[in-house]
Amino acid sequence: MDLRSRNGGSSRLRPRTVLLALAAGAALLAPTALVVPAANAAATTLGAAAAQSGRYFGAATSSFMFSNSQHTTILNREFNSIVAENEMKWDATEPQQNVFNFTGADRLVAHARANGMSVRGHALVWHAQQPGWAQNLSGTALRNAMINHINRVAGHFRGQIHSWDVVNEAFADGGGGGRRDSNLQRTGNDWIEVAFRTARTADPNAKLCYNDYNTDGINAKSTGIYNMVRDFKARGVPIDCVGFQSHLGTTLSSDYQANLQRFADLGVDVQITELDVAQGSSQASIYERVTRACLAVARCNGITVWGVRDNDSWRRGENPLLFDANGNKKAAYNSVLNALNSVSGPTNPPPTTTPPPPGGAGCSASVSLNTWNGGFVATVRVTAGNAAIRGWTVRITLPGGTAVTGTWNAQAGGSTGTVNFGNVSYNGQVGAGGSTEFGFQGTGAAPSGTPTCTAT
Ligand code: G3I
């Protein structure tokens, strides 16, 4: 149902303690993989219960809620994943073009790190909650702004996000199964794949998800998305997961699980990303069925509820969450916990990528490109040799007619011809075998030669 049309472990096993001891950046990517309680130890929190099968159980929250002790006590006790309800969206992170504000989102990520939680990123690109300046853009200007936004935001949180909702809600409701009209869609039908390719280079370790609502069964909209994912997989567009928001009413489609499974069978993970269920006699049983559906699909990584207490919910007056306004556990909570405790066996190992160090001292550089007709984004990886370096310069020769229009995490000494990109203050020092990245965006043909790297 389209809700927007109506308004818009056991305490013996302390997973969070274990995680705190291990937390160090990459641990945020998949902490649940580190925490597998012994079989038959019924967990007493949602996060610990989900971790028994290698899954996460998360909640949407906002950094301003951390001062609410009841909210935060429940959040820290029950959940091992969080997502920003609003603070990672385009309007929050880039209020003016190329001026970024990560204040709230950074607090959220720091809270996750301090409490051994993983982070879902929501959402890099969406037709809604765009800042005013983006709403007023179109065509190439909007496309370039989108690419820059993804590079900067996913780059800022690089290595700290378990899964990114790269594109949110791009399909239309109704029977057609086609794309939603939007300023982004009007930049060209390839905007979604450009977003995914850009996100992959900006944060290679994050799972990249497409996220939508009214996809709670096999219907025209979910089939439209299914066809897109199948096409992306066939053409090598980097997509790792599909998010099913699951803003549910008083009934649940009988093919909810089958729908998850058909996506998983395409070779992507699936995640329940914004679960909330209308109050009423069916609330607890729908929560249970959704939980059991995720548990029954091996590639279902985890479940996120869209808020902690009923009074935190965007669905005012509908009491759709697992805790009431006094912070008490509801019947729906118990049905979810019992369902999670009924299954064990870890799945979903964390992604790992470790670039091999080049031989010798000095540095090397490699470029990966996202290109489209008339422009490109280059992501350049600078890797130190077998000795630490204190600074670097990468020299790249651009084809005639090509111009650099924006650079991040480096300083460009020019915009055409042969351009030297030097480190900035925070990324010049690279340990032996370590690497760092910068990027630039340009108009015209992409560079094709081999970059040279000089350690300084
Ligand atoms: O922060 C401002 C405040 O300063 C201002 O006074 C007030 C006046 O309206 O607005 C406040 O911002 C609101 C924001 O929530 C924070 O409360 C926005 O107006 C309001 O539009 C925004 O609503 C969010 C909505 O997305 C925006 O579309 C909801 O909190 C959030 O739960 C909801 O989440 C979406 C997911 O991102 C995508 N899937 C559907 C889901 C539910 O709509």
TrEMBL record:
It comes from the Bacteria. It comes from Micromonospora radicis. Keywords: Carbohydrate metabolism, Glycosidase, Hydrolase, Polysaccharide degradation, Signal, Xylan degradation. InterPro entries: CBD2 (IPR001919), CBM2/CBM3_carb-bd_dom_sf (IPR008965), CBM2_carb-bd_dom_sf (IPR012291), GH (IPR017853), GH10 (IPR044846), GH10_AS (IPR031158), GH10_dom (IPR001000), TAT_signal (IPR006311). Residues 1-41 form the signal peptide. The keyword Cytoplasm does not apply. It is an enzyme of class 3 (hydrolase). Residues 342-362 are annotated as: Disordered. It catalyses: Endohydrolysis of (1->4)-beta-D-xylosidic linkages in xylans. One of its GO terms (biological process) is xylan catabolic process. The active site is at residue 274. PROSITE patterns: CBM2, GH10_1, GH10_2, TAT. Pfam families: CBM_2, Glyco_hydro_10. Residues 40-339 form the GH10 domain. Its EC number is 3.2.1.8. PANTHER family: BETA-XYLANASE, GLYCOSYL HYDROLASE. SMART domains: CBD_II, Glyco_10. Residues 347-359 have a biased composition (Pro residues). Belongs to the glycosyl hydrolase 10 (cellulase F) family. One of its GO terms (molecular function) is endo-1,4-beta-xylanase activity. This is Beta-xylanase. Residues 356-456 form the CBM2 domain.
